[in-house]
Amino acid sequence: MPTDKPAENSLMLVRKVSDLLDYLSRGESSAADIADAINEPRSSIYRLLSSLQTEGFVEAGSRRGQYRLGFKLLSLATAAVSRFDERKFALPVMERLHDLTGETVFLCVPRKDDAVCIERIEGMRVRSLALQLGGALPLHAGAAPRAILAHLPEAQWEAYIERNAPLQRFTDSTPVEPAELRAVLTRTRDDGLAVSDQDVTVGVAAIGVPITDYRGQIRGALSISGIRESILGGSSSAWREELIRGGREISEALGAELASEGLANFG
Fold first, then answer.
1. What's the number of CA atoms in the CB half-sphere (13 Å) around residue 159?
2. How many CB atoms lie within 10 A of CB 240?
3. How many domains does the chain have?
4. Which residue ranges does the record assign to the IclR-ED domain (predicted)?
5. How confident is the model over 76-129, as pLDDT tens digits?
6. Which of 68, 95, 131, 162 measures 20 to 30 Å from 125, CA to CA?
7. What is the spatial distance between Cα 258 and Cα 242, in angstroms, rounded to a whole number?
């Protein structure tokens, strides 16, 4: 049976562009690093980058030879984000947490093997955090991503580890060894709370909780992030309780039956 070569080639090109943009969503990078990461020839990556720059999807980075996502993606992202029920239900909770803590509050949703930030309220003390609006972190790094991964079935933990080995290390505290990550995920699931202690950025900590829907499926995660002493210090107990309450509130708005979904320990 003859194959539709033009359609097949178009699909391959779309996949290359998607992989390239996904990689740049994690931060600025060179063409060589992109080529290595997505397993494409450098010549092909240079051509794609040139075309994407012309259309405004990619722009030159802060250093020579570096590239980053372009502003044209912002309008597309804004249109996409506006349809998320999670964001609509989460915003009042996020504002309440921000008023209480003064720290940065994040709302993330799962996308493949990443957690993508679809809403962020800026903290008053720390402004240069790794996860920006529209940015992403892998599911093993950070409080919101691990809150998502921990709520998935253990078989999906193993599949994630296998797909992403070796796991990306951000600091010396990032759980990258499979046994270590499994232990962290088990503790997170049992506690109902993810704790990130400098495993994405040195000096920065975060706490996060999962958000589920009426099917018991993970829809996202809510987190608070800031200077380690603030997040894990004397005020952390009250903040944890309010964060847990907020995660429950958003989940209930999405129809979650917390007791039947194993989240009763959130209270």
1. 9
2. 19
3. 2
4. 72-256
5. 776 665 555 788 899 999 999 999 999 999 999 999 999 999 999 998 876 656
6. 68
7. 16
